[in-house]
């Protein structure tokens, strides 16, 4: 759904109906994603709260705008995926699986927490991080593991924040590809 101006204004003003709509429309997608990536229903609820906080913070920024054609679901899932990956790296658990919009049917979500699978997936992530390249590893570790703000990562590395944002996304795509191909 491409959000209406009315909906975005309601989010800025903390209108209850807008948050209810977000929960109804997008929580099931986040729940399925988390359950499919070594999470629990409780961690999905926590993650969704973090996503809402980030969304509202961004919406309140006068410079914020969704790129033309960007669906709100895509934006919400990108926030959720980034935050979930950061928590996995921080907690040293496992890899994530990219999902497409057609995979957002939450009814078939299951909680599968096999410790042996987690250890194998963690090993894959460690190997992928070692093979991703020094610059990418530095960006990913600083941003996701050490929670260094993107602007600070840019300052540390001597680049602009915009460049680091694009580079981080490319690095994450490379990391996912390395993990998937292993």
What does the model show?
The chain is mainly α and 182 residues long. It contains 8 helices and no strands. It folds into 2 domains: 89 residues, Rna Polymerase Sigma Factor, Chain: A (Orthogonal Bundle); 67 residues, Winged helix-like DNA-binding domain superfamily/Winged helix DNA-binding domain (Arc Repressor Mutant, subunit A, Orthogonal Bundle). The longest helix has 21 residues.
Blueprint (SSEs and pairs):
Elements: H1 5-12, H2 16-35, H3 41-60, H4 72-91, H5 115-131, H6 134-145, H7 150-157, H8 161-181
The amount of helix comes to: 55-70%
Structural class category:
mainly alpha
Provide the residue-averaged pLDDT.
Answer: 79
- Low-confidence parts, pLDDT < 50 over ≥5 residues? 100-112
What gap, in angstroms, lies between the N and C termini? 35 Å
C-alpha Rg, in Å?
17 Å
What count of domains describes the coordinates?
Answer: 2
How would you sum up the global shape? globular
Largest sheet: none
The CATH topology of the largest domain, please? Rna Polymerase Sigma Factor, Chain: A
H/I helix tally: 8
Please state roughly what percent of the residues sit in beta strands, choosing from under 5%, 5-15%, 15-25%, 25-35%, 35-45% or over 45%: under 5%
Architecture (CATH level 2) name of the largest domain:
Orthogonal Bundle
DSSP strand count? 0
Order of helices and strands: HHHHHHHH
CATH class of the largest domain: Mainly Alpha
């Amino acid at each position: 759904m491409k959000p209406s101006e009315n909906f975005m204004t309601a989010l800025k003003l903390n209108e209850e109906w807008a948050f209810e709509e977000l929960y109804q429309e997008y929580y099931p997608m986040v729940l399925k994603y988390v359950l499919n990536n070594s999470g629990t229903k409780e961690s999905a609820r926590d993650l969704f709260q973090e996503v809402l906080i980030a969304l509202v913070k961004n919406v309140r920024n006068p410079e914020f705008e969704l790129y033309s054609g960007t669906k709100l679901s895509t934006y919400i899932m990108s926030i959720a995926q980034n935050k979930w990956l950061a928590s996995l790296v921080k907690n040293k658990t496992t890899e994530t699986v990219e999902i497409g919009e057609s995979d957002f049917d939450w009814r078939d979500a299951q909680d599968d927490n096999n410790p042996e699978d987690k250890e194998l997936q963690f090993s894959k992530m460690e190997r992928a991080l070692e093979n991703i390249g020094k610059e990418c590893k530095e960006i990913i570790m600083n941003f996701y593991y050490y929670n260094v703000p993107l602007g600070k990562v840019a300052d540390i590395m001597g680049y602009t924040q915009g460049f680091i944002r694009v580079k981080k996304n490319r690095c994450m795509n490379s990391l996912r590809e390395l993990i998937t191909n292993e």
